[in-house]
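Encode chain A's predicted structure.
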Amino acid sequence: MIVLGIVLLVIGYIAHIAILWTIGIILLIIGAVLWALGSMGHAIRGRRHYW
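Encoded structure for chain A:
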């Protein structure tokens, strides 16, 4: 999810498409939160680790 967020940020920046930029930021934040929770050992939606 983090990689997808970064890709959308780059595409949105290069193509000057604001909606891709916004979606990229949202996916990047969600991915970072899930990664942080998974690395602390919290179960996320039934999974012990979030890949």
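The two ends are 9 Å apart (CA to CA).
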